[in-house]
Fold this sequence. Notes:
Helix content: 55-70%
CATH architecture: Orthogonal Bundle
Largest sheet: none
CATH class: Mainly Alpha
Number of strands: 0
CATH superfamily: Hypothetical protein af1432
Distance between the termini: 40 Å
Shape: globular
Amino acid sequence: xxxxxxxxxxxxxxxxxxxxxxLSHIQKLMGMPKSTMAQIAYAISAxxxxxxxxxxxxxxxFYGMRKPVSxxxxxxxxxxxxxxxxxxxxxSAVKMFGSAKGKTLDQELFxxxxxxxxxxxxxxxxATGYDEPDECFIAGLLHxxxxxVMEQYFHNDFSKAFMGARSMNISLSEAEQLVFGxxxxxxxxxxxxxxxxxVFLYACIRYHHSIDSMPPEFAEYGRMAxxxxxxNYLAVSKKIGDSGETDVPPVTDQLLSCINTETIEKIVxxxxxxxxxxLTEWQS
Length: 284
């Protein structure tokens, strides 16, 4: 088997989730140069459920607003349109996949892992002077979304990979390659394209385990992918949640390796202490 086999299976899977029509419309508006903030805010507000969840999250301890935010327009002014879009993407993904009962993966532990990686990605971005920490957060949150696709839509084969990783003493990513012909990064990249996610998200989801093979057109996102990969390594090695992975190679990126041990330990402990509260805020 090879990646084309998995791509064909994914393309013929009619039950794969799609983004809410309202969010697709919002993304389309954002891509139109002549769209105004008022038009985009109106489109977001039209989906009352998503809008109310977004405002609730903006007002949560996660963002630590000094004054309550009462409207989408106000939220956009304070946090920026890209951040609001990322919040809605994250909320939609958590809603679509968070309610499903995993048969192999422990869903609660999976999302603890995802949010742990997200929190540490944001703090690693801050520690290394990377100027898009909020984008690193959402990239960390969705980095393993392909694993949920495999688990929930091709369960028997995923279970075979899961058990094979343990019996052969190899990583789950390697076992996925053996069973599917490609790993969860490929499946996640397919979903990112299907959902028309921003390019930085596709690049990080698709290449966080293979940064050295990232095509030149995604080179500008190599730093972000390295940050997510480092956060993923820390989450797995420090056992923050559980994505089902048995082993992730340490990151050798020069800039990230310059972060002192004390700073890394502080980032890990902060994530460990706040991950469950953050997960609750995003799921409520």
